[in-house]
Write a structure and sequence with these properties.
Elements lengths: L6 E6 L15 H10 L4 E5 L25 H11 L6 E4 L4 H6 L32 H16 L4 E5 L11 H9 L7 H26 L4 E4 L23 E4 L10 H9 L6 E6 L14 H13 L3 E7 L8 H17 L7 E2 L3 E4 L14 H12 L4 E4 L10 E4 L7 H12 L3 E5 L15 E6 L5 E5 L12 E3 L4 E5 L4 E9 L16 E13 L2 E4 L3 H8 L2 H14 L5 E2 L8 E7 L2 E7 L4 E2 L5 E2 L6 E9 L4 E7 L3 E2 L2 E4 L2 E9 L2 E8 L5
Parallel strand pairs: 1-2, 1-8, 2-3, 3-4, 4-5, 6-7, 7-8, 10-11, 10-12, 12-13, 13-20
Antiparallel strand pairs: 9-22, 14-17, 15-16, 15-18, 18-19, 19-20, 21-26, 22-23, 23-31, 24-25, 26-30, 27-28, 27-31, 29-30
Helix pairs in contact: 1-2, 4-6, 8-9, 10-12, 12-13
Length: 668
């Protein structure tokens, strides 16, 4: 497999049968040259769309009824490959409107007997789900076989390869559930059956592709999800992927927190990553929406900072012409990506902190992210720490510090792993909600958990050891936590300040919660030599309310456990994102500063680039550098070396700056 193309376009063409003159304006040479001038090196072109129509002379499916270029797909592939642009092909699984209307036996059926999907009724515009467990799955696979046998494609992108919404109870699925001894009335059994049905389709489709073209690139979309349990997540499915694509259009429902969270999880899987954003102002199908240059730059540069290739989504106009304005915008951004990608390819992340997700740990399935994971990501990014997100299949040993996310249930097996990790020199930071799941590890964390905390909200009464940078004030913790006692030898860093009473219908005070009455003897933060236990869910609270005091409190906890972080830059604003990667013997430092604002009711916007000046950074390195240079500008920087840190000043960061720290080759 060749390395991923770094500057891709994902080209949709979901085109209604009620639109005439499809591809009337298509010119293969103009099409390919437009992409080439925009510095695009790969374009995913469409074989079949969600409306169910094909764009080549298929013998199995149905060509679009108004397609004026009978082999539009073939013309695209030939023209692009002639100018060195790769052409993976697109097809769709769960959404096929034509098949939904013409093949009722292939429809996905909800538990109430209705349709499923974004449109759950024939009278509502939008996609309705097909069941890949029926003969429809064979139909999709046969179409993929047809395309890859006919055309010299560079890969296959199989979209909507999961049951969207609730599991299917069509006749085929019910019969198979009964044959397997499963109870269709049990929602958990329906969920697990649907997951295994999806995986069965993946395996059949992959086998068919590899039987035809063993080395073809493959990706199944709508599958990537963060899960604690590898049995519910993607680890057991990885044989079906050659790389991982993170679809994340910040203007849509994803938002700006989606990509970095998922990148920090999936980079631990050892697969090349592709970051997919879109040129749309909002989401797919926003034909009249164009993303600002600053926003598109940030989304692509953030991909580079995580070692990922870039993909920008677009949708071809029904008449078959690429919009010149769209490709000027893409070209502006991709020209800058191309200047920098040499310092990205072949690089690896250098995380020091692993955050153990609790997402789906108790067996629940779904695509929603854990709010505590979001809080951990926001906190650690704003503190410029190097970190990843971990599941139960992860190796803990590479990380100096593990953060146990709220809701994580530490059973006997996990407790044994964490005890071994602590015994080998690892450190643990744990935060807890009212249903603490750390009982099996509590003694190693220096605490006894006695049950839910008696008051919520309550207040922080910090010791001097934990109060650095925090104003002397009765700061609140609003969410309920646990009541703990410190075991002998442990150090209490904060106590609970109790209100006069909890707010109830019988007694309340003012608008929100009751003021501080007194500082109690109940510990709120307890430390040992290799752990800190915080008896409140401050990660979730930080995700929901972003109280500065909670970030500073957790910052001070982390400093106790990680006194020499990879990045030491306390003067940087919290809006600056720093990632450090290794490329051969060099350290590559990525500095990002694009600030998004909530404009409108639900949309975060990046429009203006706010430069930073004279940034002082200290980066911990394994060996004394030989050179420190701004790239791609090739501008040398003055630097000093002290106590394992290279210290230097970056004159300006105008959105994005890369710094290369050259180290002498490791002695052999």
């Amino acid at each position: 497999m060749p390395p991923l193309a770094m500057r891709q376009v994902h080209l949709d063409f979901h085109t209604s049968p009620h639109i005439p003159e499809i591809a009337a304006d298509f010119d293969p040479h103009v099409f390919a040259n437009t992409l080439h001038r925009a510095h695009v090196d790969s374009v995913t072109v469409f074989a079949k769309c969600h409306h169910g129509y094909s764009y080549y002379p298929t013998e199995l499916g149905t060509p679009h009824p108004h397609l004026l270029r009978p082999d539009l797909l073939g013309e695209m592939i030939a023209a692009c490959q002639a100018v060195g642009i790769r052409t993976p092909i697109y097809t769709t699984v769960t959404w096929d409107e034509l098949a939904w209307h013409t093949q009722p036996a292939w429809r996905q059926i909800a538990a109430d007997g209705g349709a499923t999907g974004p449109s759950d009724t024939p009278l509502k515009p939008g996609w309705k789900n097909m069941c890949m467990n029926t003969g429809y799955g064979d139909y999709v696979i046969a179409q993929i076989d047809e395309v890859i046998a006919r055309y010299p494609v560079d890969g296959v992108f199989v979209d909507i390869s999961s049951y969207i919404g609730e599991p299917c109870v069509c006749g085929t699925c019910l019969a198979q559930m009964q044959a397997q001894g499963l109870d269709p009335l049990d929602p958990a059994q329906r969920e697990r059956f649907a997951l295994e049905a999806e995986r069965g389709f993946l395996q059949r489709c992959t086998a068919a592709i590899r039987a035809n073209k063993p080395d073809l690139g493959m990706f199944y979309n709508s599958r990537l999800r963060i899960e604690w349990d590898p049995a519910l997540g993607n680890r057991s499915e990885l044989d079906n992927f050659t790389h991982l694509e993170i679809e994340s259009l910040p203007g849509g429902f994803w938002g700006y927190g989606h990509f970095p969270l998922h990148a920090r999880f999936f980079q631990t899987f050892g697969y090349d990553l592709l970051a997919m954003t879109g040129r749309f102002h909002t989401a797919w199908g926003d034909f009249g929406g164009l993303r600002s240059r600053a926003a598109l730059e940030f989304e692509c540069f953030q991909a580079l900072a995580h070692g990922a290739a870039c993909s920008i989504g677009d949708q071809l106009h029904p008449r078959g012409r690429l919009d010149p304005t769209v490709y000027r915008r893409i070209g502006e951004v991709y020209a800058e990506v191309q200047r920098r990608e040499a310092w990205v390819v072949g690089s690896t992340a250098l995380p020091e902190i692993g955050v153990l997700t609790a997402k789906g740990q108790r067996g629940a399935r779904g695509n929603a992210t854990s709010i505590s994971d979001v809080g951990a990501m926001n906190l650690l990014e704003q503190l410029q720490h190097q970190f990843v997100l971990l599941d139960a299949g992860s190796d803990f040993s590479p990380y100096q510090l593990l953060v146990l996310s709220e809701g994580l249930f530490v059973d006997a097996a996990l407790a044994e792993r964490l005890q071994a990790y602590l015994a080998s020199g690892g450190r643990v930071l744990a935060t807890s909600d009212a249903n603490s799941g750390v009982l099996a590890l509590a003694a190693q964390l220096g605490v006894e958990v006695r049950g839910p905390a008696p008051f919520a909200p309550d207040y922080l009464a910090l010791s001097d050891d934990l109060a650095e940078g925090i104003e002397p004030f009765a700061h609140v913790c609003e969410l309920p936590g646990v009541q703990i006692a410190a075991l002998p030898g442990a150090q209490v860093l904060a106590h609970s300040g109790q209100p006069y009473f909890n707010r109830t219908w019988q007694h309340f005070c003012s608008h929100l919660y009751t003021p501080l009455s007194h500082v109690s003897d109940d510990p709120l933060v307890v430390a040992t030599a290799n752990s800190v236990f915080v008896a409140r869910p401050l990660l979730r609270e930080y995700a929901e309310q972003s109280r500065r005091v909670h970030r500073l409190l957790l910052r001070n906890c982390i400093r106790r456990l990680l006194p020499q972080p990879r990045v030491d830059a306390p003067a940087l604003p919290t809006s600056a994102i720093v990632t450090v990667r290794r490329q051969r013997d060099d350290l590559i430092v990525h500095l990002l500063h694009y600030v998004h604002q909530r404009r409108g009711t639900s949309l975060d916007i990046i429009e203006d680039v706010l430069p930073l000046h004279n940034l002082v950074l200290r980066i911990r390195a394994e060996r004394k550098p030989t050179d420190i240079v701004l790239v791609p500008e090739q501008q040398p920087l003055d630097w000093t070396w002290r106590e394992g840190y290279a210290e230097f000043t970056v004159p300006q960061v105008r959105g994005y700056q890369i710094v290369q720290i050259t180290q002498a080759a490791t002695a052999t």
